[in-house]
């Protein structure tokens, strides 16, 4: 199944994206000719059981992993044509990342972590924008703290702020609430949704939590390396229902 | 998962391998020293051992001395008249008595007119005679080509000299002697071979017929230096010795050949023992530095495996078992290191042999590997590793079992206060021991100073985690400004684990502390020499031989004839036993010498025309001598007592110790030969012309050089510098190990921070920026080591200089330029050490790095 959203330009596009690990008997097809578009200003959640290829999809889209075949576009830049240096630059200038854990450099304080991508690029920090981001994530009084002095939820908020502050074309979030208690998780998700609604940010999030997926505008379901379904305006109940159903299909097939 | 396990195991092997490398280098050094000195010993024993005839007659050993062989460079003025040799030969117990003549200053010149042989090695000359040989013994000298020299103008040379020069039978061989006619030539009539291997360890050997040898070396006197007596059938050496001794006057002695050979062998062994100890000191330094590297590696590995340790503990392993498992690893590393070190050491010895051979000192034959060497190699290798691993092993056992269930294991570490306390105690105690040694309060000064320095090193290493933090803040302070975030990251990384940074830097500190203290002492020595010469030398030119061997007085005589020369002062001398102890007796014409370099008399007169001697004030103090006292002198059989005529100020640049008149020295039987000639010019003389004329006068003698004041000072400095460079090179090994330590620590740190590296790369840090980060961290560590080391080195160097200020090292000079160069070199070393870890880090796959557990 392919998905197309034509009302807005795509922030990222995958065409015939295939990723195969190993070879011969041990060959595993993680992604099987996936075509997908992520519209700008949209919050997309990717769901699927373990081994469905959801993480691989995100890694290939985020220029962290090279596909076996097919093409990935960030805006109109085709990634396979780039060398490591340009890939690094693309990640630095156009992409934002939020990982499940270990998002922060332990030797730098919160503020330094947030401005890290800009500092690496040698760019000036837009202080107005910085203040907006900090206010939104509610970290004004924690900027001088080292990661070890912050709670897990605060650390993830710093990571979110870091992803936002460089105004990337698209933010990839890999199970951003996986390590958090439900309250901190909800805060982060609300914050991500707000940044899409209010700041016009594009976000792609991998999750296995239907509650988290419900914050998104759209949910993609992956199974055996293919996109098997999608859902607009999801709720936790609908997603959970779909996943149960999905499991049955998975068992049948 | 298996792949990951295998990978981490391989990585650990590499880590352990690198710490084993410290052992390899240290042990190789130890093994190389032993094998090389054992091999030298064998060679010298081949040369000197089993040389002597049944009984040897020679000048009596100076009273109170063990043997001739231990008297470095001593010769005797006593000769044995031909008549005595005949009398010995006439004894019924004697098969033959052969008079021998020996000189050690006849130099053979090659076709280019340069001296053949290693600089400083003697040019041996002997009289040729047919040796009586029994079947089971080879002659010492064997005629291998041509015929024996029979008359004046004929010479035979050893085969190695023939090989190097390419001379052929019939060639006229140019030679240099101490005689009035320093340059002589003789026709090559034969080639002789010395001993079995033919090796003379760099010396040359020329043989003349007896009459010519007497003419050349004994002023034509029909006498000999030594008699080799061969026993008649059925006479044993001991009884022959006693019989022969009955014929001899007091100034001669008879010894069995075996006893003479033993004397030589033990003297050689003693000399090589010093050499060996000298080398082993540097091996010990290298191993001491290695301890830091191993300790650090094991600490980091234990920290990384703390969860594994905790699991063992949770499963019921006792603390002792955990400790033992780490120690066992250390034993394996030690064994592997020692084995490789043993092999490398043999290679080092082969290398040294090749180097010496390239300089003309060919020690033929294979290497000597004694069982002792192997045992020492393994004991040292294993012991050092175990000592280094003990602290980390103990720490590993302290991991609480509950840590197995936790993610973030922080190893319990002994409190910082304990470290500071024990570090402080060690530094203070070490400094006190050094002071006691340097001020000669302690009984064995060298041991006190050595242990003191050791204690200070360990103390500073213990304090380093605390004191290094502010220093690194300064060293890396400019990073963020210059390099932005990359610099900031590097600075924070260097500060992140002060104990690790400090231990890594401490290894470098040791080498640099020793190097810089030596450089302070060296610079002070050079400056002291310079200033003393500026103050005390009026002579414009100095004539001396390159190897330090004396040369013919004809040179001084020629110099006196040169226009513009006002005074020529010669210095002669001889090794002597003075007042029962080995010493050197110089001889000058005091008036002439006073012109060249003023002698300040503290007491008495410097007039030596009627015999007597003068002595420097320091010796006078230590020996309790005053004007009017008599001093017993023994110059190899010629004993005399000389009154002290005067005491001169010991702070003199050119002269020290006992000095007598030229006349007296000659009366004591020492052949006139100048060791140094000082030339004073008339005021207004054209120095260029004088120098050219002097050079013309010495052109006959290739080993004699003319130096003006500046050149002389430079040559004096060269001597100091040469010694410095040798010590630097030997200390270099410790520094190489320290550099490996930096590589190791950085590589381990990078491994520990794999996820962080992945994150940084994911958010856009380029490979180049990542490499820069690691390089800057490395530079900070290296410069920290340099700063600590140079700081300590300055303190050591200045205290050493202060301590020996009385003994001629009176001017302190701190070679700041050199010290700054060391810091810059350290920074470069840091960049170099970071190369491999940085490349590894940059190669990390971003995705895999992020997902590393």
Automatic annotation (TrEMBL), chain B:
Main location: membrane
Residue ranges annotated for the MacB-like periplasmic core domain, each copy included: 18-244, 501-696
ABC3 transporter permease C-terminal domain ranges (all copies): 281-401, 730-845
InterPro entries associated with the record: ABC3_permease_C (IPR003838), MacB_PCD (IPR025857), Macrolide_Exporter_MacB (IPR050250)
Domain of life: Bacteria
Entry coiled-coil feature ranges: none
GO MF annotation, one: transmembrane transporter activity
GO-annotated cellular components: plasma membrane
Keyword Cytoplasm: no
Alphabetized UniProt keyword annotations: Cell membrane, Membrane, Transmembrane, Transmembrane helix
Compartment(s) where it occurs, according to its Swiss-Prot or TrEMBL record: Cell membrane
Topological type in the membrane: Multi-pass membrane protein
Protein name: FtsX-like permease family protein
